[in-house]
Amino acid sequence: MASEEELFASVDALLNEEPHLPPPAERARLREAAGITQARLATALKTTTQSVKNWENGRSEPKSPRLEAYQRLLKGWAAKYPAPGAAPGASVAATAPAASAEPAASRVEMADAPQTLAVAAAAPARPATPRPAATSRRPATKKAAQPAADPRFPHGPLAVLDGDGCAYGVDGIVLDCPATTVVELVEWTLRESGLGAAKLNRYGKDSDPLIVLTSAAAVKLGLPERLEGHEQRRALRLPEDHPVVKQVVKAKWRLTQRGFGPWARIYRKAQGRERQCVQLAILSWDALDERSWPGVAEMEPADIARVLGVYAQRVITPRGSTAVSGLELMTALRPPTRAVQDPTTGNWVPGHNPGSLGTEPVDPAPLEAPPEHPVVVDSGWTGGFLNEEAYQWVRPVGLLTDEECTLPFAVGLDLNTAFLAAAARLVVGLSAPDQFHRPTFNPKTPGSWLVDLSHVEVDPRLPSPFTPDGSRPTGPAWYQTHTVAYAQELGYNVTPIEAYLRRETGAYLDPWHDRLKTAYLDTLADLGVTKDLTDAEFLAVMERHKDVDPALAAVLAAIKATVKGGIGKLRERPQGKKYKEGERWPALQRPTWRPDIRAAVISKARINMHRKMRNMATMTGLYPLAVLSDCVVYPSPGDSPLDFLPYAASGKPQPGAFRLGPTPGLAKLEGVQSMLWAVDLMEQGLNPARHIKGGDAVLDEGE
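Below the sequence we write its predicted structure tokens.
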């Protein structure tokens, strides 16, 4: 029980405590009464006009020593300009709220947050004056994504640090970062910033905070504005003797094997459950690739924070390229371990998490690996390889009919995130492969089968479903389960000669698919593309959806790149000129290096495409001119998909064929050209699907 002396000391401390500042409205009144502009006050306090605005609308508080200076100024003004009805010389403290118990280091400023922020904050008592940036001109979006509330991370998952020490976060938050070195930045981020994100799975780990550096911030911290010299650019990292790298090492921090590059991860060994890791992204080192993040690197810091914040909230806090983030998302949603109780000691220890890929990598079967893999080189494997890749097919010009050639248009359809659609409810192998001779084919068992499908007849105006180039198989070859099952679906018997199958199976990609599908559809909906649109409305909205909000359009592009890049990373090849065939490369140390899972996704996507083309031929009599990955080109009597897609008498799309819509697996218009243009490309041996969009547009092929 506390003594009388201790209780009196506590009470005296409360009596002596000075309130910090008057209410926000009173701050504005006092400044206006003194005839001082916000800009002039900002100059006097050596801060920004925006910070003063935030103080006066209650969205943030100044930090020491600026806090004490501001308090002194307000007290002086209060003595000169008392509030109406107040006694002259009344103390500011008389009407001020009690001092905040919040540590000064965690106080934040709020940048202007326009109504279009996809991660929206509650409206302040007085609306902030919009800042003169691109964000202030955005139309309002239809819906807003709400971040999960987590008191451990009050300021969101990330911030964009500019050269003036302002760190722009989500919700328009602006943190005052005093760091002048990378080491100080890391320590500030972990101790004071309030940045981070909660784990996506109960057995997973929290996301490390991300700090994105503008070029000015990078220079201020002692980093080069750009990687200099041939060696740095080639290695995409600073040399080990660079002063910043030395500072990091001297302070007992570590860098990952990637070193200090565009995406630098700086960490110390975890203390208990508390991770000590900060992810840095350096904009001027091309951390945000233009293909995956179109236009983002050139945006203002607050807008960059908005784009990355929406992506972090809907997908994952970026940890590298979109391909890396796609792979990391798989692990975050299916952690390799969970807590299990040791029966002998009763202690809780890490144990295997069912449905995951575990903690140890497994080698593929030789036929599933690329030729340079050690399992191929060491075994001298000569039995052929699995060739499950996306379509690259052009119909021979000699198979075009006169009727087709007289049609005026070639129309390209693109399937929305075809690989994501293929990942839905996809059962894959979770364990190492086992070899079987003369097995009975089972369409529910994931694996690779050696089987002869050369006897399967397919209309020559369609590509073969069994090969990426659409040519007919000439003998036994290795196929993934979905490819062989499609031969059965077409009515043919299959007799496997050999197989590499996996005994432990599961729908590993289900949570990955579900999260990315939701992110994709929510972002499209924010751009005005919703499921309730008619097909004509859908086509009209898709023509202009990227202009509605360039920031959200960039998020959409990043989500699509995450899907394709994540699947591609499952079979990452060795990099660097020094690599020698047969050596193990770093990617092989990941449990997520699984070329068999990649093959399963691509096989299912290609079969889905062929099934739709076959149904289209049955329903409409139309055959494709060319296919490239998820894009197919058809001859058409009009310049719209509505002129050739099959519809029922009721006006509803026919199931089984290509259908328009925003959902993954449905189609959108990729481009329209003249039929003469398409035939000319085909005669040159080029693929119209690659260029149907116009200009120099080239679809990527899935990896």
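The CA atoms of residues 179 and 185 lie 5 Å apart.
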